[in-house]
């Protein structure tokens, strides 16, 4: 049995098969949580579970569920499936997309706008809503909900993905309000704001295009993309009782990018 900073906590991670989701699943299991890995991709989430079990042989419960977070009924079934574990303690609303057809105000197709808001914004709302209902149902005096936003919710980007940027701004604002509304119930809500990372979401899109890469890398004080594991470590902190008085924060893990004026040579 793994024990650690998340011992005794039941956690759901959405987008669990992706870059940040998988690293977080591994750390949550290592820290003693019972973890439900949720993703829209059956094959990918099964592979993720195998990896977690391989890397954390003494893990507690590690299970998977297929869930499209943009569908409320699916999110409800997912969260209620943890009733048999004693209800949810930690909800990491992390699933998100950045669509290849997302563009500027003129070029973004409306269906891409709708799809992006459905997954990135409504998905976070549904996850938060059903986590609150579960926490109340199981009479919990504390809970931690972490919602993945992005640094593009904080700084403008000259390479437009307007639907994505708007969606992440919404995550930030929604999370802040949820934090205040539910503070006296003991339910904490924080946003995670990752910098551009070495995960498939971004790296597949950048490909071998060096000028496209340089337009980003020049802004990184640390001179590199972030790693998913660095986000996962922050999520463990936000999920654990170590962050018991951290609430409503835009928790930025970006190597200093959003605080930089000029970067080192
Ligand atoms: P990723 O593409 O590696 O993983 C995303 C996962 O979400 C995938 O496994 C995918 O199958 C799943 N998913 C997609 N649509 C879903 C849906 N409707 N329901 C359930 N699951 C769904 O991405 P990542 O880099 O790990 O990103 C995770 C989060 O971090 C996203 O919200 C993303 O916007 C955000 N983020 C990423 C970066 C970056 O540079 N990678 C930067 C800032 C923020």
Automatic annotation (TrEMBL):
Family, per entry: Belongs to the short-chain dehydrogenases/reductases (SDR) family.
Superkingdom, natural source: Eukaryota
Protein name: Short-chain dehydrogenase reductase family protein
Annotated SUPFAM superfamilies: NAD(P)-binding Rossmann-fold domains (SSF51735)
Pfam families per the UniProt record, alphabetical: adh_short_C2
InterPro entries linked to this entry: NAD(P)-bd_dom_sf (IPR036291), Sc_DH/Rdtase_CS (IPR020904), SDR_fam (IPR002347)
PANTHER family named in the record: 3-OXOACYL-(ACYL-CARRIER-PROTEIN) REDUCTASE (AFU_ORTHOLOGUE AFUA_6G11210), DEHYDROGENASE_REDUCTASE FAMILY PROTEIN, PUTATIVE (AFU_ORTHOLOGUE AFUA_6G03520)-RELATED
């Amino acid at each position: 049995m793994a024990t650690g900073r998340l011992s005794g906590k039941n956690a759901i991670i959405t987008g669990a098969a992706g870059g940040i989701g998988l690293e977080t699943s591994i750390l949550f299991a290592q820290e003693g949580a019972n973890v439900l890995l949720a993703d829209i991709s059956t094959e990918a989430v099964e592979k993720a579970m195998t990896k977690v079990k391989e890397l954390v042989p003494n893990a507690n419960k590690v299970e998977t569920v297929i869930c499209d977070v943009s569908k409320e009924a699916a999110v409800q079934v997912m969260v209620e499936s943890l009733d048999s574990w004693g209800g949810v303690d930690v909800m990491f609303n992390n699933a998100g997309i950045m669509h290849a057809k997302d563009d500027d105000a003129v070029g973004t197709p409306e269906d891409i706008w709708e799809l992006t808001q459905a997954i990135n914004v409504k998905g976070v709302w549904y996850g938060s809503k059903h986590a609150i209902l579960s926490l109340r149902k199981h009479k919990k005096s504390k809970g931690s909900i972490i919602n993945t936003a992005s640094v593009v919710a904080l700084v403008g980007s000259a390479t437009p993905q307007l639907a994505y940027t708007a969606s992440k701004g919404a995550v930030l604002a929604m999370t802040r309000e949820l934090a205040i509304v539910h503070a006296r119930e003991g339910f904490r809500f924080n946003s995670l704001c990752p910098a551009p990372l070495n995960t498939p979401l971004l790296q597949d899109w950048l490909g071998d295009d060096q000028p496209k890469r340089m337009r980003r890398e020049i802004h990184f004080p640390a001179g590199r993309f972030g790693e998913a594991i660095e986000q996962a470590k922050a999520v463990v902190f936000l999920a654990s009782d170590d962050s018991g008085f951290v609430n409503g924060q835009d928790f930025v893990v970006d190597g200093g990018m959003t605080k930089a004026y000029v970067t080192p040579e």
